[in-house]
């Protein structure tokens, strides 16, 4: 159970990191963007750690409170849940 959950969180984190990089590139070119709701949904579903990494790698969404505070909080919750699962 733990291994599957860990793999899922890693995959979701990579996907969200790539999606935020894509959104940042679109923002630079003043093109259609990925919605914030989509990004937050991906974070809630397990990609928060990748979202935090992307925020600082690409300097993207760092001024938006729901990302600047929400993604690290979600990431901490995901890590806590992983630790709890590993202890079972």
UniProtKB/TrEMBL annotation:
It comes from the Bacteria. It holds the Pfam family DUF1294. The keyword Transmembrane applies. The chain crosses the membrane at residues 37-58, 67-87. The keyword Membrane applies. Keywords: Membrane, Transmembrane, Transmembrane helix. This is DUF1294 domain-containing protein.
């Amino acid at each position: 159970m733990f291994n599957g959950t860990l793999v899922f969180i890693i995959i979701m984190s990579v996907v969200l990191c790539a999606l935020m990089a894509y959104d940042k590139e679109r923002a630079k070119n003043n093109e259609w963007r990925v919605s914030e709701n989509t990004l937050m949904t991906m974070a809630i579903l397990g990609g928060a750690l990748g979202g935090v990494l992307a925020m600082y790698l690409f300097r993207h969404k760092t001024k938006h409170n729901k990302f600047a505070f929400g993604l690290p909080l979600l990431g901490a919750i995901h890590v806590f849940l992983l630790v709890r699962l590993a202890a079972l």
